[in-house]
Amino acid sequence: MSSLQNKNQIPWHRERANKLQSACKSVQTRISRGERKQKAFRRVAKYHDGRSFKGDPKRHLSLSEGTLRHLFAKWKRGGEVPSAFRFRYQPRRSAITAPVLIRFIDYSARQQFPSMKSAWQKFSTRGGNYGCGRRSNKPLKITYGMARYFFPAAKYSQLQEQLEKIDQAQDTLAGRRLDFQAEIITLLSARPPRRRVKKESDFQI
Q1: 113 neighbors 122 (Cβ within 8 angstroms)
Q2: Lowest mean pLDDT segment, chosen from 101-105, 173-177, 186-190, 195-199
Q3: pLDDT digits over 49-75, tens only?
Q4: In the chain, how many H helices and how many E strands?
Q5: What is the per-residue burial (b if ≥16 Cβ within 10 Å, else e) of 117-147?
Q6: Percent of the residues in the chain that have a pLDDT greater than 70, as a whole number
Q7: What is the rounded CA–CA span in Å between residue 171 and residue 185?
Q8: Most distant CA pair in the chain: distance in Å?
Q9: pTM listed for this prediction
């Protein structure tokens, strides 16, 4: 049943176009009824902003008053139809490479940092981090935002949380080891007891 529902769901980008179509129609209706443009754009943007898509609940519509004004003009030029909001872009190859980000994940799993941003800043200045913009031992020209796009801060936090647990476990282990060793020292001596040799009687005259 769930697989059938997934097949019938509208892709999020088409759902976005439909939501924007509805928003622009609402603005147009409000203005036609005599409502001030600024008030109409502000109210409609506030109503639709942050709403999730059924086709992809992780995505949310980001709509401010200024963005809605821009989209409304685009909608009017495009014939007042949902296709006016269709994405028109070509996929671009990412400047960050898999080996660089994999090494950053390893780097983040070995030591703790105050934040992911501080970890990336230190990592990007290390030697050997080849990638786009690496020239004459200069830092990487890969921004923190690019790294966070492919490796979200939430996943970085998971690594740091596990690393903290490991550190705490190692501290606990070291403390237990010292306690047990101290207990043994109080029970046993450092050297084995000396073996006494019984002297035999000498009857020579």
Answers
A1: yes
A2: 195-199
A3: 888 888 788 888 888 999 899 999 988
A4: 8, 0
A5: eebbeebbeeeebebeebeeeeebebebebb
A6: 79
A7: 21
A8: 141
A9: 0.45
